[in-house]
């Protein structure tokens, strides 16, 4: 820097300083080290300039990075807001008839007004232009004739008089007063063969030039005779460009042909058109707001009773049977409200009657079941005494004692099921949930069904990839469900194997019981959980039963917030699937097992399965043993859940369900 370059003071003797003082006369502007005196100043400033450039470049990059981060952050905050607003509008559009009607009315009104406004504006602009054009053509013919007559009658023959005559004549064309009504451009035609008047080449008003004339108009005027032509153009007036009309003609003076263009300013007409358009826009906006308000008022008067009816109907569906609509007036909406209230009253009366009848039936079943328990106990005790002494009877009495004992057992089972159903109907059934290993329950059920399976000659095969699955459930009710499913499968399996599969995912566990017996049709599958229903009423039931087992199983599944579904096909057997949430009160998204068995239509190779086979003569596994026969420490923690076995499929063909639908 110049301020950093200092000159050493001279010695008192007038001689130069020492060598060190001479070396210190000049210092480097950046490093501060001394440099020789003969070093160029530009060379001294170059490193400093490079250093400052590098610093400012880095600062600019940092500033750009910070600005870009601010922009990205703003976009990240704005985008969710826009997305939320768009979703809110879509939700409002789908759910509000009033909003949809008003929005459609406003949009259609805006489109209609835009079309009508554009048409009116175009017509007004065209009419204003045509009117001004006719006026310009008429005035141009008059003033061009006047100019030509003046030139023809002129006796000027010197330069001064010719210039004065042309100037005065063209000045008169502009009009009188301070306001210029017309502007002119006076230009000699190029390339004339006749002798030309060199005193006047061109004239124009208000500092205009021939460049403001469209080339097409000049060409038409130059190639014509005495015809008049016009064209739209723009020319400068002060600091602005005004729209206008240029009308061109030919005039002659002293043998020279000139192009005379009269320019008419359309700025006043343009201002008038702008004012009309502003009025149209303002009136249109006010009209659209008025139409929107009217549409909102009318739609609200029509939709409000409908919305009120929807709210009342939702309350009626929720059990508030006393809710009614408010009826005002005698119009169509009032008649609709009166009809709705009459319908609601009729429904309330019928529902009350049905509820009373249902309560009476439930009370009757419960009372009869309770009243029958005492005599049934007495009859059972007598039947047991006769059954124990049957060996002393003759064959006929012996057979009668056996039949009496068996039917009393069946009657007692039916009575127990009726009592359980009455508790479900009365809403008195509650869950006693606690964390339990599902394999303990499954093993206990298989243990209990082993004698029946041995009698039918069937084998029960347990399939699972898990060693331990803890479920919060009522073990007694799940045991009853699985026992019903397994005994039904054994009874209808016709001596073929019965497969029990267990699988789990992150929120549910599924147990399926698959048999290969007579199967069911789609109609039979749809009714399999109905009370006292049988696929073939004439078919003997050797295992007994009341016809309420699957109905009770469906009610137990509902208490667990689970799914109980059935699949069947004639000649291919049937499959019952029980799906339970792992946690009490949890929800099921997808069952770990598919309902339609994979052995019916298998798209690829079957996955590897681990099985526990229980033959008819084999003893059942010990309670609490795992379903996986592979060696390992039974006390080890449960492994992570593997892929579901078999793959989950669509619950489509021939399904029936109990509990919550998937």
UniProtKB/TrEMBL annotation:
Alphabetical list of InterPro entries matching this protein: HAMP_dom, HATPase_C_sf, HATPase_dom, His_kinase_dom, HisK_dim/P_dom, HisK_dim/P_sf, HssS/ArlS-like, MtrAB_MtrB
Record-annotated HAMP domain positions: 300-352
Topology term for the membrane: Multi-pass membrane protein
Enzyme Commission number(s): 2.7.13.3
Reactions catalysed: ATP + protein L-histidine = ADP + protein N-phospho-L-histidine
Localization (cell): Cell membrane
Keyword terms, alphabetized: ATP-binding, Cell membrane, Kinase, Membrane, Nucleotide-binding, Phosphoprotein, Transferase, Transmembrane, Transmembrane helix, Two-component regulatory system
Comp. bias (Pro residues): 636-646
Disordered as annotated region, ranges: 1-37, 611-662
Parts forming coiled coils: none
Positions of the Histidine kinase domain: 367-584
Major site of localization recorded for this protein: membrane
Transmembrane annotation, as ranges: 99-120, 279-298
Sample GO molecular function, one term: kinase activity
Protein's UniProt name: Sensor histidine kinase MtrB
Organism this protein belongs to: Arthrobacter ramosus
Gene: mtrB
